[in-house]
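Supplementary Methods. Inverse-folding protocol.

Structures were first reduced to a discrete structure-token string of length 242. This string, shown here, constituted the complete conditioning input.
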């Protein structure tokens, strides 16, 4: 299975992007570049705009103002981008059946379905559960299956919206290990998390949002060692941002 990001999708550039709903700016004049490399992790308090930024970056939401490009092009259909939401919906079929559906939706030739289904199940550690109804899987197993469905598209960029929310430590570690494995295969991962420990473990780059603004962005090592803004220092200290 091809698992290497084509440069045509990257970098993703947001230039002065705003999302305005009912007169309220959910994102406010965001300028940001998401380039090839290790995972970019969005952090910030609830309501800061993390999920909205993911939806804009994949192309599900059009900016109210500003411009977004993928590999230097505007209006590119999200054929090589995939997203996993915080609460993925499982189809009423087996785990393998969920993957077969995803492969059909991605226009993968039918003759490849069986082999690719086996490969995807193995990649996320569910090879022994292919025939189990997806809705009977545990929360962590469902999230791994959702990752496999996203990877069925052979994406260049994988967006993850708080992928370990409400999972126990073992399930969280399994998801984080898969994120690292996917990143090593050359797929750009852009994810949001509410968990600063997870951001420290996974991120190569941190983007911190507050009230719809990017308040700080840069390498994870320097962000956690010496945050440059008062908002970042407050957030890392565990205090409330208002």
């Amino acid at each position: 299975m091809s698992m290497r990001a084509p440069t045509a999708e990257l970098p993703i550039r947001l230039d002065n992007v705003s999302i305005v709903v009912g007169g309220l700016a959910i994102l406010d004049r965001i300028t940001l570049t998401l380039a090839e490399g290790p995972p970019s992790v969005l952090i910030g308090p609830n309501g800061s705009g993390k999920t909205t930024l993911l939806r804009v970056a994949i192309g599900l939401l059009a900016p109210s103002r500003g411009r977004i490009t993928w590999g230097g092009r505007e209006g590119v259909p999200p054929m090589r981008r995939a997203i996993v939401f915080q609460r993925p919906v499982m189809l009423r079929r087996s785990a393998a059946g969920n993957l077969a559906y995803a492969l059909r939706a991605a226009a993968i030739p039918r003759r490849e379905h069986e082999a690719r289904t086996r490969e995807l199940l193995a990649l996320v550690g569910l090879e022994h559960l292919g025939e189990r109804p997806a809705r009977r899987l545990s929360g962590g197993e469902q999230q791994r299956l959702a990752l496999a469905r996203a990877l069925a598209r052979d994406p260049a960029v994988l967006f993850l919206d708080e992928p370990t929310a409400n999972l126990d430590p073992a399930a969280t570690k399994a998801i984080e290990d898969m994120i690292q494995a996917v990143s090593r295969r050359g797929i750009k991962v852009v994810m949001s998390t509410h968990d600063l420990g997870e951001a420290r473990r996974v991120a190569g780059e941190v983007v911190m949002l507050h009230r719809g603004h990017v308040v700080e962005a840069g390498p994870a090592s320097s962000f956690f060692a010496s945050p440059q803004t008062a908002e970042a220092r407050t957030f890392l200290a565990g205090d409330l941002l208002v």
